[in-house]
Amino acid sequence: MSMSIRISQLAIPLLCLGAFVVHAEMGVGTVQDPVTRQYTDNVSKDWQEGIVLHPQTGNYIVTYKDAWGFFNSVILEPATKIDPTLKSKFKLSDSVNTVVYEYKLRNGPKAKQDIRMLLTLVSNISGNPTGPLDWDGRIVPTFTDSNLFLSWTYEDKDAKVLPLRGLAPGKTADGFKVESNDLPGVVMIKVKGNARHTTWLGNVPSIDTEVGQKVVLLGSMDHIPELAAAPVISVPTPFDAAVVLITIQKHLAQELVRRKLVDASLAGQLDQLFQAAIVAAKGGNTVALKSNLQALRQLLKEKHGEMGKDDEDKDDDKDIDKNYVKARDKKLAAKVLDFDLKYIQRRLGDD
Amino acid sequence: MDLLKPTKRNLESLIVPRRSCSLRYGFRQLALAVGLWLALSPHSHAGWEIVPAHPVWLIPFCVANPYPPAGVNYTPEYKPWANCPYNEWMPLQRGVIAFTKGACGGQPGDSYGLSMTVLHWTGRIDTYDSRDFGFGCALTYQCKDGTGYNGGPNMLPPGVSPNPDSLLCRTWTPDPVPPAPPPPPPPPGGPVPDPDYYYIMLTDGSTYPPEEDRSGLRPLGTLELEPAQRTQPIFAYVYNGNTGEVVPGASVEIAATVSDESGGHAHLANRPKGDLIAIAPHTGTSGDDGVLKGTTAANGEMLFQFKAPVVAGDHGITARCTDRDCGEASGVILVGVKDLQSLSIHNYRVYKLVGQTGAHPDNHYLTLTADARVTVFAAMYQLKYPQRSVLHLNDASLERGGIFDIYPESSPNWKAPHLEHCRGTVIDIRANGADGALNITSDDDPMIQEIKDLGGIVGADPVWEVPKGNTGIRQWNLRHFHTRLMGQEGLQCP
At CB < 8 Å, which residues of chain B contact A? Predict the structure, then answer.
């Protein structure tokens, strides 16, 4: 993906925060040098709380008053100085009802940081995630719902100095893999670079302050979002086509349409067919159900063509434009839907 | 919602079941156990009607079978019920259970004492509302519908139902009282004694009845309130005990109190009592003494609100008259954040709890989800670095949240906040190397990033902090990870 695209993504928080300053106030505090990171204590001056971009380093300078009334000016380095391209593949495994998901990650040569972490939410996986050499895959419950955090982190063994390593610019890592009984949907995978941590002096700005709220907001956006296929469509045991169809229909409405991966007109047509299929499934009308499933797949094929082929390595090492990325993601969405529908057909004994 | 957990030390008898052992059993097993228990139990307890068991009646099951069956782990969640330390559990109605504690010795007036608490299922499978029905043995209450019970409260004023929720019976009458002997004739020429007597009552606005029907006024009882929040209007009435009419113009004094060592604060000096704020037409606010004075209006009422302090605790409100004897009315307000639980000391294999002080002896309360996340976080750290000491977990929140006042250390002042440690979603991980804690050796230590990565995996955000304190100088010896366990959730303090 081109750096121009990435820069525009980086600019989103900057547009929000670049000029964000609060009133000035005389006081005493500590300043961290934006380049050397060295501290100067007991600085007495007119302080302006806020968050500004340091153009030379591309980092933020956060100025705030701590709980004791002392000022601090510290560096916040975003973890978005990367240029990731994440590709996902999925297929039925040999044991028919398990889906194998594989990911390939590339960090563009113009990136300023190594890539250190991939993180997303999935509904379930079988076994443990596996990854390339030096990447540690983890699955952890969210504890807030039935979803799981799925992550891969670069393991910088015996690291002695900062910054820690990760997937370097210009490098590709293949072999991120999970298996799941659940079907694919399109999810946002957070890709994070190896930004150096911030040392918050006194205390991190409280959420009760304007600066604190902006810092939390920055943290929530501190990644590059990549769309990929991942297990998010739960498949109940025993198999229930109606339940699966309802979940896919919900995913279509809440994720694919919201992310503009499916055009509104097509979404409307699909939704009608989904509704008919669900009614048929609930009513035990297998003939009608199969017919509706076939109609759904046919409609997808008419709009997106054949979906069996991958764009293997098409965009490696090339500057690609935003339109291409959008078209690729749309095709991924269609492919995911077709796969899920085909899976249901298979479970109904129709394949 | 669960009732706030009363401070253990002060309200020992007010037991609130938070989680039942039932979660580990199927309903079929439960039904069998409850049925067995009912079959073996006497079908009458001092006149109570026993009604068919509801599947959520879980507590009797523990009495019938106080230990987990084979194959079921003994868990902290199970423990309260496995102990079942109460003498007797009694089903009262569908979803309503009472337990007694103590012994009466069988005779009214015995000095032993019997306390009773009624639990009312709130609609959530593991949640009961709790009402303390007082303490004593002397009285027998008789319901008008023919039911009644012994060992009930002896602290309720006349005219006040012992069962404001109508849990036991809809109406009641006290035991017949023998007629009082006629008053002695007034001494010749002396003052004629006032035949009237008065009593005062507090009731909260949430149950305020229409003016034409105040016969069913509900006493204040126990309210729950978040720190820094206000109650609904509270009404103080003065009644003429002879006529039952309200008394305008009575001088009333409302006093706010706070229990020592409640809400997780064991320090005493200058503890805020909360504010009593008069509502128009009355005016005024309580001062440092916690007292609000006023006069009942033409309709016999005095209105006010209680504003909780920013710290959690058990508060009391007491009302009395200053121009006549009208007895005393009181209520309890439990101030705090609900649904916090203490990190288990049984997880010492994955973390160590540190930072307890005399002022705050229990400093590791979290929400259920935050608890789970930090436990997984610590376990992953331990797995990754088995040669290192487990994580040392310092301050989270206090028993009922609210402001966690950590300064000055010698005598915390109820104000200086431990930022974001109010709602059980944040915990500090010690990183200063003290007593085997994680030792971050410099600002360039790669372990800082390792910890942040681990946090990210479990949905937490370990924020690297170097405090400065009131000197303005960086205090490297206090370095730690201020760990937000639930993202932006629960970071705001009152």
Answer: 368-369, 372-373, 376, 380, 416-417, 419-420, 443-444, 446, 448-450, 452-453, 456-459, 461, 463-470, 472-474, 482, 487-488, 491-493
If you average pLDDT over residues B423-449, what whole number do you get?
Answer: 95
User: Are residues A159 and A178 part of one domain?
Assistant: yes
| Predicted confidence (pLDDT) at residue B335 exceeds the cutoff of 90 | yes
| Identity at B7, one-letter amino acid code | T
Residues found in chain B: 494
d(CA A83, CA A76): 19
> Does any CB of chain B come closer than 8 Å to the CB of residue A149?
yes
What DSSP assignment string belongs to B269-283? TT----EEEE-TTS-
Shortest Cα distance, chain A CAs vs residue B449, angstroms: 7
Which residues, listed in sequence order, are joined to residue B230 by a DSSP beta bridge? B307
pLDDT band of B205, cuts 50, 70, 90: low
Q: Is residue A68 located within the same domain as residue A204?
A: yes
Same domain, A191 and A100: yes
Closest CA to A172 of A113, A132, A130: A132
For residue A206, which amino acid is it? S
A265 and A312 share a domain?
yes
How far apart CA B277 and CA B284 sit, in angstroms, is 6
Q: How far is B444 from chain A (nearest CA, A)?
A: 6
Contact call for B472 and A70, based on CB within 8 A: yes
CA distance A137 to chain B (A): 10
Pair A99, A110 in one domain: yes
Is A142–B466 a contact, with Cβ atoms under 8 angstroms apart? Answer: no
Please indicate whether residue B153 or residue B447 has the higher confidence score (pLDDT): B447
The boundaries of the domain holding residue A74 are 3-78+196-220
Task: Return the exposure string of B444-483: e unless at least 16 CB atoms fall within 10 Å of the residue's CB, then b.
Answer: ebbebbbbbbbbbbbbbbbbbbbbbeeebebeeebbbbbb
Of A158, A186, A220, the position where a domain reaches its end is A220
> Looking at the partner chain, which of A68, A149, A208 has a beta carbon nearest the beta carbon of B493?
A208
Q: Does A144 touch chain B (CB under 8 A)?
A: yes
* Nearest chain B alpha carbon to A137: B457
Q: Whole-angstrom Cα distance, residue B273 to residue B287?
A: 10
Task: Assess whether pLDDT exceeds 50 at residue A14.
Answer: no
Task: Return the amino acid letter for B342.
Answer: S
> How is residue B332 written in tokens?
């309890």
Provide, as residue numbers in chain B, all residues whose Cβ is less than 8 Å from the Cβ of A197: 448-449, 452, 464
Among chain A residues, CA nearest to B419 = A206
- ipTM of this predicted structure: 0.90
- pLDDT for position B185: 60
pLDDT for the residue B120:
46
* Tally of structural domains, chain A: 3
Output the six-digit token pair for B205. 């606005």
> Between the ranges B22-31, B92-101, B187-196, B312-321, where is the mean pLDDT highest?
B312-321
* Each residue's pLDDT tens digit, B156-172: 333 334 444 433 333 33
Q: Where are the beta strands (DSSP E) in chain A?
A: 20-32, 39-54, 59-65, 71-76, 84-92, 99-107, 115-122, 126-130, 135-141, 148-154, 172-180, 183-193, 200-201, 224-233
| Same domain, residue pair A15 and A38 | yes
Q: Which of A12-26, A227-241, B140-154, B324-338 has the lowest mean pLDDT?
A: B140-154
Residues A342 and A249 in one domain: yes
Residue A33 contacts B, CB cutoff 8 Å:
no
Clarify whether residues A187 and A202 are in a common domain.
no
- Hey, of B380, B387, B419, B458, which one would you mutate to test binding to chain A, going by the most A CBs within 10 A of its CB? B419
